[in-house]
Specification:
Elements lengths: L1 H35 L5 H36 L5 H28 L7 H7 L1 H16 L2
Helix pairs in contact: 1-2, 1-3, 1-4, 2-3, 3-5
Length: about 140
């Protein structure tokens, strides 16, 4: 039975990771543009809606699905004790921390309390990319 489930779990995991990463890469760009919008303007209010929907309807469900499928695969394939898996898990934990930070930034913008510059969000935009590269290399190369 596990051999029938594994390819579906793997496909589900890949789809979830792609969806999560799309949001993780797009959200900071929204923040960059939101920084330049005047508080209370139509543009600012539109960014608030976009950020909330991206975070709640796409990023968070995708993150939870990626975690669930990934942990199932790790357990099913016996990866839990492998060194490369520990590295990948560390990258995913850090990605989750960044995800939660973005949730805080979404709430800050929604309440018109953003105190960070567009430069800050440009830098934050690079962190998920670096973590993704690390995770992919660890999974594919398994050093």
């Amino acid at each position: 039975m596990a051999e029938l489930i594994y390819p579906w779990a793997k496909a589900f995991h890949i789809i979830a990771v792609i969806s999560w990463m799309a949001g993780m890469l797009y959200m900071p760009r929204l923040f960059v543009y939101h920084c330049t919008a005047t508080v209370g303007s139509k543009q600012s209010e539109t960014f608030k809606i976009m950020e909330r929907r991206l975070y709640k309807a796409i990023m968070t469900p995708a993150m939870l699905a990626a975690w669930a499928a990934g942990l199932y695969i790790a357990w099913d394939r016996g990866f839990l004790m492998d060194g490369w898996f520990h590295g990948k898990l560390a990258a995913v934990v850090l990605m989750t921390v960044i995800h939660l930070m973005m949730g805080r930034y979404v709430r800050d913008f929604a309440a018109d309390r953003n105190t960070r510059s567009h430069k800050f969000y440009r830098i934050i935009n690079e962190v998920p990319t670096l973590l993704m590269i690390a995770a992919v290399i660890l999974v594919v190369i398994k050093p």
